[in-house]
């Protein structure tokens, strides 16, 4: 059974509930002859992927939703890289994170292969195929340079749509070849309306206060808000009405609570022993597939919330520094642990200076 976040995902540009101007703009582009390469960016759960798929539907029709997962092996001199692709007759979707530092090969080999095969469906509305690159901000520099060349060379039968959180890690040469499409996070009111709409479709009602509270808790991440609503509905035994008194405390993500507790441990004691205990918890988070940069950011935020005001900027600067070193280095655990050690030392120093 599909989660509500997937079940109630709008499929056409016309049915998108917010950023109507953006939807109309994409519709116009899809209907005009010349569709550009696009760089779609915005925060998590803002609706980027939904808009990309709706645009593909406007370009090719509902056939683009018939997707399958294909496993490919790319052989490069001595190494074999296995990647999973999502493919339809009209597009492929790749995630460069799967290939790590070998992502240049995916860009070169897979995209080239796709670009060289013409669309065999003579009745197809468009002669070009589309490559979606998700998490494009994790593309390495060599991969981005290879992509730039590929975009130029195969413009006749290929369009690239990149999806990422921010354009800051995308080289200017690619940005200048793309239409930049910003998908801002929906407002609290927009999220509340969507939640109440989903509740109606599922046959129950939700008090406006609860919908507003979930919207605020979700930090304007719509997917998260929908998941929270579903969790609340299920944990309350699928009631016909969720009243304003419903208890929202049980629907937080476990891993976030775990990180918040870890931050409390860091603030309570700064010692080698405590660092060892925190390391075990960091391993635990990584073993449960929480991305290292998400762990770093959430932990930094949780520590910053727990320290005195003057120390907050220092904690965030340290986290930014170690997140950067984590991107260019290997073994995320080293960088996470270094951040914790540094934060512990800084906090201890701060406390000593306060009492002197
Ligand atoms: N216009 C909309 N109306 C109603 N629901 C929407 C709309 N846009 C997106 N959603 C819902 O929000 C959820 C998140 O959307 P989507 O997956 O497109 O976000 P995203 O920005 O690609 O997220 P991420 O970067 O985290 O992958 C989806 O599950 C979808 O159901």
Automatic annotation (TrEMBL):
Question: Where does it localize?
Answer: Nucleus
Instruction: Tell me the Gene3D superfamilies matching this sequence.
Output: 1.10.8.60, 1.20.272.10, P-loop containing nucleotide triphosphate hydrolases
Set out the biological process GO terms recorded for this chain's protein: DNA repair; DNA strand elongation involved in DNA replication
Molecular function (GO) terms listed? DNA binding; DNA clamp loader activity
Pfam families named in the record: DNA_pol3_delta2, RCF1-5-like_lid, RFC_C
Which SUPFAM superfamilies is this protein grouped with?
Answer: P-loop containing nucleoside triphosphate hydrolases, post-AAA+ oligomerization domain-like
**Matching InterPro entries, A to Z?**
AAA+_ATPase, DNA_pol3_clamp-load_cplx_C, DNA_Rep/Repair_Clamp_Loader, P-loop_NTPase
- Hydrolase among keywords: no
Its family remark reads: Belongs to the activator 1 small subunits family.
Official protein name in the record: Replication factor C subunit 5
Q: Which organism is it from?
A: Allomyces macrogynus (strain ATCC 38327) (Allomyces javanicus var. macrogynus)
């Amino acid at each position: 059974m599909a989660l509500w976040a997937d079940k109630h995902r709008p499929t056409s540009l016309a049915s998108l509930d917010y950023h109507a101007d953006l939807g109309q703009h994409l519709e116009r582009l899809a209907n005009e002859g010349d569709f550009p390469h696009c760089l779609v960016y915005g925060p998590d759960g803002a609706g980027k992927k939904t808009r990309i798929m709706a645009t593909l539907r406007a370009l090719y029709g509902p056939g683009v939703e018939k997707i399958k997962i294909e496993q490919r092996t790319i052989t490069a001199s001595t190494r074999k890289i296995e990647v999973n692709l999502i493919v339809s007759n009209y597009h492929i979707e790749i995630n460069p994170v799967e290939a790590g530092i070998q992502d240049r090969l995916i860009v070169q080999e897979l995209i080239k292969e796709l670009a060289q095969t013409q669309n065999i469906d003579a009745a197809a509305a468009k002669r070009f195929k589309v490559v979606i690159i998700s998490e494009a901000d994790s593309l390495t520099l060599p991969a981005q340079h290879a992509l730039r060349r590929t975009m130029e060379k195969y413009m006749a039968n290929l369009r690239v749509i990149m999806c990422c959180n921010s354009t800051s890690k995308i080289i200017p040469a690619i940005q200048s070849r793309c239409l930049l499409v910003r998908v801002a996070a929906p407002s609290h009111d927009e999220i509340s309306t969507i939640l109440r709409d989903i509740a109606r479709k599922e046959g129950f009602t939700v008090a406006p206060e609860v919908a507003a509270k979930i919207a605020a808790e979700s930090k304007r991440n719509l997917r998260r808000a929908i998941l929270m609503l579903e969790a609340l509905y299920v944990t309350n035994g699928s009631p016909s009405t969720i009243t304003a008194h419903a208890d929202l405390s049980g629907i937080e993500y476990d891993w976030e609570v775990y990180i918040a507790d870890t931050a409390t441990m860091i603030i309570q004691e700064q010692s080698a022993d405590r660092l060892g205990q925190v390391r075990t918890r960091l391993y635990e988070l990584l073993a449960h597939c929480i991305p290292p940069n998400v762990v770093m950011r959430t932990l930094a935020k949780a520590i910053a919330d727990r320290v005195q005001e003057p120390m907050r900027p220092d904690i965030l600067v340290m986290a930014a520094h170690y997140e950067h070193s984590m991107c260019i280095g290997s073994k995320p655990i080293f960088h996470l642990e270094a951040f914790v050690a540094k934060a512990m030392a800084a906090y201890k120093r701060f406390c000593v200076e306060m009492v002197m």
